[in-house]
């Protein structure tokens, strides 16, 4: 990712520009693959429920953070049904404005809407049981991803989890000029997690997605 590190400012500003032109809809959030939303949410719910509950070692259900939340697709269908309070962070203010309507009556259980890129975002220390980071790590440089994961670790409550769910390439780092992002292979993602000082508690591949898109893997970290 050397080239991207050198052109860091444009890497981030180009991505912001891309998302400003994306319609604030589920279809827009999923790049034209709105049809996979239910498969995605059901897979995420099954993954997350392995950890949630009461008792020793279980992850609490008080507060979650949705990173790269967009209009709140994951907040609405995955996080709000499971957690008492959910915070959203996204770089695009228009998406967060739309989220308030999209979430409907349940929006009253949103704690905060933060408009920020994750490279600049500092989550509140000790606030979150789960920090959900889906389809957004490709918008961070390696160094910024490591730094962000370290900040996330500090933001966890006891037995809390950081969850990454994202595309993985078959080999190496594949840049996407259209939305100014990268797709890393799984071993690179794992190495960045280790560099951040977190451990992988569990890992799964999301099944039943269309063949033409990248494999998607979910990693639980703490």
TrEMBL record:
InterPro entries: MeTrfase_NTM1, SAM-dependent_MTases_sf. Keywords: Methyltransferase, Nucleus, S-adenosyl-L-methionine, Transferase. Its EC number is 2.1.1.244. GO terms for molecular function: N-terminal protein N-methyltransferase activity. It catalyses: N-terminal L-seryl-L-prolyl-L-lysyl-[protein] + 3 S-adenosyl-L-methionine = N-terminal N,N,N-trimethyl-L-seryl-L-prolyl-L-lysyl-[protein] + 3 S-adenosyl-L-homocysteine + 3 H(+); N-terminal L-alanyl-L-prolyl-L-lysyl-[protein] + 3 S-adenosyl-L-methionine = N-terminal N,N,N-trimethyl-L-alanyl-L-prolyl-L-lysyl-[protein] + 3 S-adenosyl-L-homocysteine + 3 H(+); N-terminal L-prolyl-L-prolyl-L-lysyl-[protein] + 2 S-adenosyl-L-methionine = N-terminal N,N-dimethyl-L-prolyl-L-prolyl-L-lysyl-[protein] + 2 S-adenosyl-L-homocysteine + 2 H(+). GO terms for cellular component: cytoplasm; nucleus. It holds the Pfam family Methyltransf_PK. Belongs to the methyltransferase superfamily. NTM1 family. This is protein N-terminal methyltransferase. The lineage of its organism: Eukaryota, Metazoa, Chordata, Craniata, Vertebrata.
């Amino acid at each position: 990712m050397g080239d991207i590190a050198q052109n860091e400012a444009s890497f981030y500003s180009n991505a912001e520009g891309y998302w400003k032109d994306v319609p604030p809809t589920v279809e827009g959030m999923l790049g034209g693959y709105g049809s996979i939303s239910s498969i995605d949410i059901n897979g995420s719910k099954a993954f997350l429920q392995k950890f949630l509950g009461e008792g020793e070692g279980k992850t609490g259900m008080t507060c979650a953070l949705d990173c790269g939340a967009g209009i709140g697709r994951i907040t609405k269908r995955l996080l709000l049904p499971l957690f008492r309070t959910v915070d959203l962070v996204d770089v695009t203010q228009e998406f967060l404005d739309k989220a308030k309507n999209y979430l409907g009556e349940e929006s009253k259980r949103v704690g905060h809407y933060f408009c920020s890129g994750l490279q600049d975002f500092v989550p509140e220390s000790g606030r979150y049981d789960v920090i959900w980071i889906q389809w957004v790590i490709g918008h961070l440089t390696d160094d910024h991803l490591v730094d962000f994961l370290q900040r996330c670790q500090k933001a966890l409550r006891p037995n809390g989890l950081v969850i990454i769910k994202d595309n993985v390439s078959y080999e190496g780092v594949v840049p996407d000029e259209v939305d100014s992002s990268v797709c890393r292979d799984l071993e690179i993602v794992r190495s960045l997690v280790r560099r951040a000082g977190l451990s992988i508690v569990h890992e799964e591949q999301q099944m039943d997605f269309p063949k033409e898109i990248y494999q998607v893997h979910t990693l639980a970290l703490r």
